[in-house]
Amino acid sequence: MNSTTTFSSFRSLLVVSLLTIVSCQKQVSQNQQTTESEFATSVSKSPTPANPPFNLEVILRGNGGRFGHVKFRQDNDVDRIVNLGVWVRDLAPNHEYKLQRAVDAANVVDGNCTSTAWLTLGLGSTAQSIFTDENGIGNQDLWRSLSAFPSGSSFDIHFQVIDAVSSAVVLISDCYKFTIR
Prior knowledge:
Layout: H1 3-44, E1 56-61, E2 67-74, E3 81-89, E4 96-103, E5 119-120, E6 122-123, E7 126-127, E8 130-131, E9 138-145, E10 154-163, E11 169-173, E12 176-179
Antiparallel strand pairs: 1-2, 1-11, 2-3, 3-9, 4-5, 4-8, 4-10, 6-7, 10-11, 10-12
């Protein structure tokens, strides 16, 4: 075999390889579009659309720059669990606190929280404290089942953090609206 034949064979092999790669990339791209299209269709047919306020970023404030945050997340699951990632700062060091919530009547959503029926939150129905470190910072992952309420129920809700010893309110939130998935 001479060098011209070898070069020609190499060039042909290179062209075939490039065409195969381009063809595979096109097929993968078409598959991704189909998958994205199927996903969009399944979401649009979902019985629980994504636009009600299912998830919240709750801000809690107190005197002297005290601050807290609750990351309120509802997964789209049959158990209807809400996860509550709680973070507080500038509270008394090495101290115990509790997160509470109060909700107004179901489906009477006017943005004006009037309920004072405070429920201490925790791990399911078991209350769980939030402990601060030596710098007055604390965090705790909590959760609660919302399965007692039908999907689509809406509520006005507000939160507070209380001192576990004295029950004094140290942080409080504004009123939020949310809907159960």
